[in-house]
Amino acid sequence: MGERIRGSAGVKLRKRRLARTGGLCERCEAAGRVTLATRVDHIQPLALGGEDVDENTRNLCEPCHLEVTAEQFNHAAPIEGRGIGRDGRPTSADHPWNRDRSGPPPGSKV
Ligand SMILES: [Zn+2]
Q1: pLDDT given for residue 105 in this prediction
Q2: What is the pLDDT of residues 31-89, one digit of tens each?
Q3: Which residues have CB under 8 Å from 2's CB, separation 6+?
Q4: Between 3.40.50, 1.10.3470, 1.10.30, 2.10.260, what CATH number should domain 7-101 receive?
Q5: 47 C-alpha to center of ligand 1: Å?
Q6: Distance 71 CA to ligand 1 centre (A)
Q7: Which residues neighbour 73 within 8 Å (Cβ) at sequence distance 6 or greater?
Q8: Å from CA of 38 to ligand 1 middle
Q9: Where is this region: Disordered (predicted)?
Q10: pLDDT of residue 19
């Protein structure tokens, strides 16, 4: 399994990789959206034997990163429990906040 490169060398590496797409999320770009990438994602996850090389990386924004990570691990990882949307709400449909959404707003008369 490849090891992550840490320290200042790792920061430089990350910056260089992000610069390859002009700092934009590749997944959003494919969908016609322009979103700033905040993550350098490993296409084949290091945890699954992927290599830490440029060819195995792509630049993603946080929401895309969460989505592809969940896909990569077949939703087996506890990603749903800690997924947070752009509005600060949990992304899991099972989360009480989201379940309550379908009901009447708090304080309303039923
Ligand atoms: Zn994206």
Answers
A1: 59
A2: 999 999 999 999 988 888 999 999 999 999 999 999 998 887 775 545 444 566 767 77
A3: 46, 50, 51, 52, 53
A4: 1.10.30
A5: 22
A6: 14
A7: 45, 79
A8: 9
A9: 75-110
A10: 95
